């Protein structure tokens, strides 16, 4: 009983790590722009595909450097994936969001655009690459450890470690560096920031770089853990990561991180006690409940509207 | 006499449609295109209450459509035909002609009750968060349907075509065409009357400024509740008609893609413009049908001039790239859509003298 409970907790930590990594990206963009980047889940999907092609490029039959060891490929693929996914995210910001922001249109239009960009990424991927699922190559052979009757794999530990490290890094960037201060300044008052000589657009691009980069990282590790990738993998996970960010209180990094783990925990527990088809149902119902009771989430601070 | 122009025109159109569908002057394909046009008009105009007039952003309209579709299908199959799920009919096929509208109304009522899922949180939340709530509600509906194995779950549910043929045996008329037409006219009429009523002005007031509306004694919670319930109920009506046109429902139909299709109609027509929504629904239906053929043609053509490799086929998936792209471009270059916030009568003031209800 205790063993299965510990096992579930470990699985929940792993599952929650993915949610946390994606929720961090949601949270950064929302914190700076007050825009829910609906395309974020699909950026995660694009990240997984980029990781797939990076790995295929480095090993496999198109291998440039045949015989590279797996950990070496991983070490090259992580920064490569993060950079390329960040490029995708910034491109999206450039061609879709920035013109709208320049015109100063209703925020609704930006949200619609974001949602549609996500759909374009999904279906464009499906149309270009076909519906066949791609199986991700094994980079690091899975090692299984038995600790007190609980099975731990090296990939699980790696994912949890990466999530925690990412959180610490982001937290450091946002609270201790100059650009992080600029990000917080923009979220505090967007109109005063350019007057202070802070290049607002650069900061916004940097935000997208960070958020998309971590989505790409999540995509890479997700594909390593569940080695089948398909164009629609990002949709549902993106939604749920958003739920995690909302539960934690959007706009607070610690909240997003905690929310991700909380949602992972809830989902794993649901699967442990109910049929697995109920998982999404319960996740969305929790979201509805939380938003009905506390619209700003658990860690969020209510914004007062001035008249 | 002049004021009766619109009902007279509608009656003429109705007669022509009946004659064309009954004698086979319209082939089955065009009949179904016309019927989907009607269903899309209902969907677009009803979503327009929320997204256009109220200025909120609901993107889970397909979920309410699914409720209506399933409730009315289950009822009509249970009442009128012999089926594997329900066994013997409760009333019998001969009553189908008279009781069918009640079945549709039941679907609409069920959908408006599910609309409470969105309406109640909307008292507190606005904007992006409400968008999430609508998506979550649509997802909850879809997931619930998939989890009920008795009505087919993810495989879908069929048997409505037997109801239709039973109605034809009683009185031989194109029944489904009749009901789609009546449903379309009814919903446009209802929405027009609702939006122009004193109560409906509150919807516009909420769009302008919710706090100011509240101060000026608009009961915002009540207005939101009614607007959401009317909108969702009509979506349910459209869903019921949709299910009976196809004769088969499947939860996979009512995804975010369907909601997107409806959203494109609303924003293409113009936010808060009823006639714009009707126009855009007609255009979009034709466009979707046209795209279906166009991709096939494009596929053959591109293979013929050998631009793309032989292994690659241009499939219908591109439709879901083109439609969102259309909406993105619309938001970039003409966010107000075809009509903006104007009605036909604002563009052509001469039309006003033909209306009975000036609005």
Automatic annotation (TrEMBL), chain A:
Presence of the UniProt keyword Transport in the record: yes
Instruction: Please indicate if the UniProt record lists Oxidoreductase as a keyword.
Output: no
Please give the organism: Solidesulfovibrio magneticus (strain ATCC 700980 / DSM 13731 / RS-1) (Desulfovibrio magneticus)
Q: Look up and give the membrane topology term.
A: Multi-pass membrane protein
Its chief place of residence is: membrane
Query: InterPro entries this protein is in?
Result: ABC_transp_permease, BCAA_transport_permease
Name of the featured protein: ABC transporter permease protein
Q: Please list the GO terms describing molecular function.
A: L-isoleucine transmembrane transporter activity; L-leucine transmembrane transporter activity; L-phenylalanine transmembrane transporter activity; L-valine transmembrane transporter activity
Keywords, in A-Z order = Amino-acid transport, Cell inner membrane, Cell membrane, Membrane, Transmembrane, Transmembrane helix, Transport
Q: Which family does it belong to?
A: Belongs to the binding-protein-dependent transport system permease family. LivHM subfamily.
Which CDD domains does the protein's record reference? TM_PBP1_LivH_like
**TM stretches of this protein:** 12-36, 43-65, 71-92, 104-121, 155-174, 203-229, 241-274, 281-302
Q: Where in the cell is it found?
A: Cell membrane
Q: Name one GO biological process term.
A: L-alanine transport
Species lineage: Bacteria, Pseudomonadati, Thermodesulfobacteriota, Desulfovibrionia, Desulfovibrionales
Q: Which GO terms describe its cellular component?
A: plasma membrane
Instruction: Look up the domain of life of the source.
Output: Bacteria
What Pfam families does the annotation carry?
BPD_transp_2
